[in-house]
Structure formats: structure tokens, C-alpha cells
Amino acid sequence: MLRRLPAPPLSPALAGRALSALLRRIARRNPAILSRLGPHGAARFLIDVTDAPLLLLMEPQAQRMTAHRRSAAPVPGHDAAIRGRLAAFLAMLHGSEDGDALFFSGELAIAGDTSAVLALRNALDDAELDLTAELEALARPPLDVWLRRMMAAAARRSGYVLSREV
Amino acid sequence: MMELVCPAGTPAALRAAVDAGAHTVYCGFADETNARNFPGLNFSRPEMAEGVAYAKARGARVLVAINTFPRAGEQALWHRAVADAHGAGAHAVILADPGLIAHAADTHPDLRLHLSVQAAAANPDAINFYAESFGIRRVVLPRVLTVEEITAINREIDIETEVFVFGGLCVMAEGRCSLSSWATGLSPNMNGVCSPASHVVYDEVAGQNEARLGGLLIHRTPKGAPVPYPTLCKGCFTAPATDTGPAQTGHIFEDPVSLDATELIPRLQRAGVTALKIEGRQRSRAYVAQVVRAFRAAVEAAEAGAPMPAGLLAKLTEGQSATTGAYAKTWR
Ligand code: SF4
Q1: Which helix H or strand E contains A86, and what residues bound it?
Q2: How much is the average pLDDT of B312-322?
Q3: How far apart are CA B98 and CA B29, in angstroms?
Q4: Residue span of the structural domain in which B266 resides
Q5: Which of B38, B29, B28 is nearest to B195 (CA)?
Q6: Which of A19, B83, B249, B318 has the most CB atoms around its CB within 10 Å?
Q7: CATH number reported for the structural domain that contains residue A78 in this entry
Q8: Which of B67, B143, B171 to mutate to test the pocket of ligand 1 (most atoms within 8 A of CB)?
């Protein structure tokens, strides 16, 4: 679905700022994520959503997420990389698919510091995040209600898992 | 009904297991005292107490695995784990080391003790020794026995037996774990880390997936094909050519497949097995929820004398294929 969409109106800088705000909010409300990550919180994770236009670099400890144009060389420096389609990332985050199963089947691929990826996967799995709820909470009423409806419609149309299932 | 014993590597997985119908959940503290000491996994002391309370409120029980072997001079860490599991209200602790078992029996006489698969007690004499010496109430049988052997064991022992029915085929017996220790310098049995992620590297080399452990190439698969985790006891080995034959490459010890003994549940029930165990504390809450739901349906079907549901979980198994393991074959 994303391939057919025009390039996002957001510049990488704006996308990074919005994502960092989301990340800070998630870290604030789920302190267990950083404690589970332990020393791996300092790792830089390259999130390569292959059907999205931007590469994301996540730094949990610094609570920073930056977006980078796929075409812009070189790839930002990182300690670990996770690559896969958006559907796989969303299904894993929301508990509808098992991360190992996605990995065994090749739907997700990892490179670099395997320990850090494992720690991140386990920390996020325990946090039971719900992206729709997180986005909703960032918006002011009545925008939150509109957002919830839009996410539900998007989930129906795209088949993406946009809120928590387990 | 047979008791379903389910894994939880995180509090979220514990809740998922209980909600999906687990009778019992097993978990461990976030340190070397349990055999799944992986990054980001396991329970702090407060999380354990909350997990026990969550389970109890819904009629389920929590077992705490303290199933690695204490290092000389470091026993206090393991002793503290037993005391804290008891304090948290665990239904039982799962132990492997005879010294730790003796300590637990002496110090916590009212704490129920289970014998871990790590103890590798696979015959009636060994099991009766643990039962008589320390009051062990249940033995988790290593995955090296046939159903007939389990039946024979149950005839000669008075304590409960628990057997694995699903998940990674982790035998933890016959010296296999030494392979992982040799490759990484860290021990599955002592440090709770089998083929630790810190020593694992996945890479794409010349259009193929490679998985290495401690620098050693364990698996090579074509691009797009499943890549097993590089667990050395399930690795691919090449035996050099000899006078009698050419070089051979294959899985010498164990194939990188998972155990699925669903179809054997009625036979295991007749063999006198009390509890069925699902492996996978390192897996996600999604895995736990799906597997527990499927096995709860299976034990209910077994209770009602109905046929076993089949093939529900293929996608969740390592290498995406499953085996009935040693239960229905003779050991290689
Ligand atoms: S080496 Fe094999 S048997 Fe030992 S812990 Fe690892 S998977 Fe299990």
C-alpha cells in the first residue's frame, strides 16, 4: 500500500522529530523497556522497513529516532539492523505474530549485534505497546477520536495490525 | 485433565499464558540461575511476585526455574533465588543441582521441589534417589525417552512426571551442551546461556544466509529460505573424506526442527504422565498465546477421548518443521 502512496509530505527532519516525541512518550510510560534493554539501551538500531521510503535510526537510551532518506548514502552508522516489511514489524509489535517465527521464515532479517536485537525484541514484547493508543494520546481532542477512526479504517483497508492483539 | 505447563520469559508472556488457559506457568529470575538467561528476558523480584499474584487470582500456578548449576563460591546467588521464589509465593521451584536441592529441602521444607530436565534423571533409580533423598515431587524427563520407556519409569516411581510436548528440541543431556560451551566459553548448564546471541552473527555472504556462533559457520541457507538459529547441537557439520567414503555434510546430533508431540498426548496420558510442558521462555507473548491455546484444546480433547488436533502450529516451529523426537523413535 505504501508503495502506491506519494512520498510523505514530511521531511526526514520533521518525521524524526515526530518519531522522537513518540519514542519519549513510550519510554516515559514504560520504564521497564529501558531497564530490560540494560547495556543494550545504548545501541543504535537501524530499522529498515523495506516498503517505507525512510530508514529509521533508533537510539533508545538517548530517546532519539531519526529518519533518513533511503537514497542518501551512506547508511547511518548503527550497531544492529532489523529489516523487513511494515506488516511484519507491526504484527510483531502488536503480538499477532511471533518475532522468531517471522525471523525463521525470512520475513524479518537481522544483522550486527544479535544480543541487542534480542534485548530490544524482548523489551518491546513485554511492553505490550499499542501504536494506535500511543498516537491517540499524542493528539488533542477531537483529533484523537478522528485518529482512532482513521487508524481502524487504515487497518481494515491495508490488513496491517495497527493495535495490540495479545 | 493433564496439566499444561507453559513458558513465560516476561510478565506479558505470563499473562498471555494464563489468559490462554495455562494451568501452570514456569519462569525464572533475570540472572544466571536459570537456563534461559537471555538479554531482555526474565523476571525481577517484584515482577515475579506480581506474576504469581496474577496467576493465582485466575486459578493458575507459577513454577520458578532455578535450574543451572551453582559455581563454587557463588552459591549465595542460587540460595537467594530459591528463598525469593518461595517468598514470592511460587507453587514450586525447578532445580537441577543436588547441592542446591539439598539446601532447598533443608532451608525451605514446605517448598515443593521439581527436578529439572537439566538433572537428566532418565531412569527409575536416579529419580527414586532424588525423591527419597530430597522429597522431590515431580521430575521433568529429558527428551531422550520413548513413550514405552516413560511408561516403564512411571511403573517404578511414586512421584509425578512432566514431559515436553512442544518447542525447541533442547536435550540438555548426553554432553550436547558442551559443544556450545566450547564454541563460546559460556555454558548452558552453568551460565544459563546456550549459543548466546552475543556470539551469534547473521550475514549475507555471496547471496546466501550464513549463521555463525563464536566465529564458526553453523548454517548456510539460500537467500529467502528459513535460517535456523545457530545452536551448535543442531548445527550442520562436515565430516572429512576418509578411505571408506567421501566428505559428508549434515546435522549429526539433531536436526534444527522443533518437537511437536500433540499426536502422542493420549499415549502419554496412558503412560501415567501428569503434566505436559511447552518449551520457549525465549519466545514472544504471541507464540505463548497461540501455543497455549492450541494445547489447552488438545488436553481437553484428550480428556474427552476425542482425536488430537493436528498441524496447527507449523509456522511457529524452528525450521518450520516438527518431529515427535525421541518419543516415537529409538535414540540415534
Ligand atoms: S546445546 Fe543443545 S541441548 Fe544444550 S542447551 Fe543448547 S539447545 Fe539445549
Answers
A1: helix A86-93
A2: 63
A3: 20
A4: 3-169+257-331
A5: B38
A6: B318
A7: 3.30.1050.10
A8: B171
Considering the domain boundaries, does residue A143 fall inside one?
A: no
Cell of A55: 530508514
Indicate whether A49 belongs to any domain.
Answer: yes
Interface of A with B in 97-156 (CB under 8 A): 97-101, 103-106, 109-111, 114-123, 125-128
Q: How many domains does chain A have?
A: 1
pLDDT for res B29: 98
pLDDT at A1: 47
Tell me what pLDDT residue B329 has.
59
CB contacts < 8 Å between A and B, how many?
Answer: 103
- Does B9 touch chain A if contact means CB atoms closer than 8 Å? yes
**B263/B298 Cα distance (integer angstroms):** 9
Predicted complex ipTM: 0.90
Ligand 1, residue B189: give the atom nearest the CA: 5
Statement to judge: residues B28 and B110 lie in one domain: yes
d(CA B75, CA B60): 30
Q: How many CA atoms lie within 13 A of B259 on its CB side?
A: 26
How confident is the model over B39-94, as pLDDT tens digits?
999 999 999 999 999 999 999 999 999 999 999 999 999 999 999 999 999 999 99
At B311 the pLDDT is 64
Task: Evaluate whether residue A40 is within a structural domain.
Answer: yes
User: B148 and B58, same structural domain?
Assistant: yes
- Under an 8 A CB cutoff, do A95 and B16 touch? yes
Q: What is the pLDDT of residue B331?
A: 44
For B74, residues 6+ apart whose C-beta sits below 8 A from its C-beta are none
First to last CA, chain A: 25
For residues B234 and B325, the answer to whether their CB atoms sit within 8 Å is no
B172 within ligand 1 shell (Cβ under 6 A): yes
User: What confidence tens digit (pLDDT) does each residue in B117-138 have?
Assistant: 999 999 999 999 999 999 999 9
Please count the structural domains in chain B.
Answer: 2
Q: Tell me what pLDDT residue B288 has.
A: 96
Chain A closest-CA separation from residue B8 CA (Å): 10
Nearest CB to B316: which of A98, A106, A110? A98
Chain B residues whose CB is inside 8 A of the A166 CB are 16, 285-286, 289
User: B240 and B123, same structural domain?
Assistant: no
For residue B23, what pLDDT is reported? 98
A35, A104, A117 member nearest B226 (Cβ): A104
Residue of higher predicted confidence among B150 and B173: B150
